[in-house]
């Protein structure tokens, strides 16, 4: 028999050894090969330029990524949370996380990320939180994100995002937290925002090309606690529906283009603590019903072309710590009711030019005052003796009046 044929007739012992080694190789591979989730994460890691130290534990020899830095799994070994906040990743967002079917939380804020938000994010249907804030992301907000019906928190602030706030944002019916501020967004605030009945925080300030009016539908966001549209081109009047926001604590729409009357309905916002409407061409009186805001702490209305008198009713805002009405067109006198503001620390009424009368003695009862600015008005009389009670007063500015 030829030598080559004789070699094919291996002894039973050799065959058994070959089978044993093959089986052990298979078992070894099965035990130590990383699962699909880990493969997807490693592929993303390999695309990054930074984070070598922080992601050192991301090892292909592990069976699963569940013990890796920033990765959290459920009891079934499925990745539920990726939290790499503050890690210097130096790369782009992942577009192939399909194996991570149970992913609920993705926090990549302050991670030095660039590029666009992948449309594939819309495929991760279990997501409840996305935080991509404080990066250098560009492009638009992909429409696919608005398919994530379980989403509760979407933080995209402090990037370079462009385009409009999508009307489809109203489909995110479980959204509680939406921050889009400090980007390059344009267009208008969509009316569909009013569909977000669970929304507590909406901040889109710092987008200078965001224009149009505050939509009337904002009043339907009855869970809203914080509304921020400052440093935009938002114009027109505040809608009367603002009075439907019974839980709102902060309204910040300063350095914008608001005009027309501040609606009296704002008096219905019984939880309001901070109202920032300064640097707007409002050109209307201060509504008397602001005096109904018994929890109000900050009232900032400076440089807003306000006209008319300062309502006596403001003396009922006994929690007020800051009242700034400087650089307006206010007339009449300083209300004596201001003496009721026992927590007041900062009072500014300068540069109203038509503000007349004397400085009320009652201001001496505001013993928490540290700063009083009444300069450049038409005030007369003398400095009240009661000011001797203001032991915490650090600055008193009265120049440019007709005081004796």
From TrEMBL:
Transmembrane segments: none
Domain of life: Eukaryota
SUPFAM superfamilies: RNI-like
Domain Disease resistance R13L4/SHOC-2-like LRR: 144-254
Record domain Leucine-rich repeat-containing N-terminal plant-type: where: 35-74
A Pfam family this chain is assigned to: LRRNT_2
Keyword Signal tagged: yes
Record's keyword terms, sorted: Leucine-rich repeat, Membrane, Repeat, Signal, Transmembrane, Transmembrane helix
Protein name, entry field: Leucine-rich repeat-containing N-terminal plant-type domain-containing protein
